[in-house]
Write a structure and sequence with these properties.
With 199 residues, the chain is of the alpha/beta class. Helix content is 36%, strand content 24%. It has helices at 60-64, 72-86, 97-100, 103-114, 119-125, 136-144, 157-165, 185-195; strands at residues 7-14, 23-30, 37-43, 51-57, 88-94, 149-153, 169-174. The chain has a seven-stranded mixed sheet, sandwiched between helices. β2 (23-30) and β3 (37-43) form a beta hairpin. The longest helix has 15 residues, at 72-86. It starts with 6 loop residues before the first strand and ends with a helix.
Length: 199
């Protein structure tokens, strides 16, 4: 992974939401002026206990448009709903669209998938790794907010390993199995077979 610029917490404000009227949004920006990343506090999570947390990479098509080609939108909404039901949590919304390749390249990958390539093969044909995201950003943000341990909402073992390797203790993996459709069964199978996702 590439070296990254340290993150600055540039602003935070109270944000009442449907899942919790006690919410707060923190905006982080790398010192080099790169993409902003967001931390959404739901409720008032205790800093001295493992926090229910989710590292969610931005997905314009899934999160906003309701795309059926991925499970991102349902995962985002299910994670927030679970945090709201438990009364506390932290959602890290990382601007790493398309596994870090950006929206335009994600659309190029979708075109290749329509020709029969799977997600990983399409990324490789475009000159990218399987996954270009940098999950260390999530660890940096959690630490800056005062958290040292998490109950991580994920199906991706790479996120757990990254957290542990960068000093955030993962006391529990909380499965997040939602969003399977007739349009994304191949995508989910590829995530399990080639990326080790626990589906």
């Amino acid at each position: 992974m590439n070296d990254r610029s340290p993150l600055d917490d540039i602003v935070s404000a109270r944000l009442p939401m449907q899942v919790s009227e006690a919410g707060r949004l923190h905006i982080f920006r790398p010192e080099d002026g790169g993409e902003e990343h967001y931390a959404v506090e739901i409720g008032k999570p205790m800093r001295d206990q493992p926090v229910l947390a989710r590292l969610h990479s931005a997905c314009f098509t899934g999160d906003l448009l309701g795309s059926l080609k991925c499970d991102c939108g349902p995962q985002l909404r299910a994670a927030m709903a679970q945090m709201g039901a438990e009364g506390a949590g932290v959602l890290l919304y990382l601007n790493q669209e398309g596994r870090g390749i950006g929206l335009a390249n994600k659309m190029r990958a979708y075109s290749l998938q329509d020709q029969g390539f799977d997600t990983v093969e399409a990324n490789h044909r475009l000159g990218f790794e399987d996954d270009e995201r940098d999950f260390r950003l999530g660890s940096d943000i959690l630490k800056s907010l005062g958290f040292s341990s998490v109950r991580l909402l994920t199906n991706n073992p790479a996120k757990i390993a990254m957290m542990e390797n960068t000093g955030i203790k993962v006391v529990e993996r909380v499965p997040l199995k939602v969003g399977e459709t007739a349009f994304n069964t191949g995508y989910l199978a590829t995530k399990a077979a080639k990326s080790g996702h626990l589906l």
